[in-house]
Design goal:
The chain is an alpha/beta fold. It has helices spanning 53-60, 75-78, 81-87, 103-110, 177-188, 207-214, and strands spanning 12-24, 27-39, 43-47, 64-69, 96-98, 118-119, 125-128, 131-137, 146-150, 155-159, 162-163, 166-167, 196-199, 205-206. Bound molecules: zinc ion. Residues 72, 74, 141, 160 line the site of zinc ion.
Amino acid sequence: MAAPRPGPTSARVDHGVTSGTFTLDRETFDVENNIWVVGDDTECVVIDAPHSVDDILAVVGDRTVKAIVCTHAHDDHVRVAPALREAVNGGAGAPILLHPADRPLWQLTHGDHEAWDQDLADGDVIGVGGTDLQVIRTPGHAPGAVCLYAPELGCVFTGDTLFHGGPGATGRSYSDRDVIERSIRDRLFALPPTTVVHTGHGEDTTIAAEQANLG
Ligand SMILES: [Zn+2]
C-alpha cells in the first residue's frame, strides 16, 4: 500500500475507556476496553460497543452515528451493541456491522433474538466524515476478527488482534495462534510502518514497534 499522507480531511479519532467484564469458557474477567469513534463534527462511526452505552455516547456527543462496526464478537465488544443501536440518532438507530464468521461468538451473548444488521467483508470501505475505513480480515483471536485501517488518518484499529506488546490472546475457544500470527504478518505488517495502532485494550503502539516485537 502507498504511504499515507495527511489528506484534506477534517475527520479525527476520539477515545474513551470503559470498564466491565469479559466471559468465555465459563470464566469471567474484569477488563477495561477502549472506545474508538472516528468522524468529523457532524457524523461518526463507533468501533465496538464495550460495556456502557452512556460511556460510548459521551464520546459520540450529538453527532450522527453512521454505523457501529464490531472488530469481533467477544462479549466485551458487542454486549451493549443492540442497546447502543437503539440509543443513537434520536432513537432512529444505526446498523451494527460484523463479519459473519463470528456468528458463534455473537450467539453466545445475544442468542438468536438479536441480530447484527450488515455483514463485513475483507476490502469493504466505510466512509465517514470525508475519510475512509478499510476492512482488513484478520482471523485468529476470533474467526471473524477484522481490523479497520484509516489511511488518511495514519492509523489502524486492531480490536484484540494486535496489542502494544504483541498478538491478542488465543488461549480460548474459537481462537488460533497460527492463524492470528499469519493475519498479523500478512495483513497488518503490510501497512506502512509508521501506522499508529489503536487497540481494543490498553495503549497505542505502531506497526514498526510490533514488527520488532514479533520478529
Ligand atoms: Zn476479544
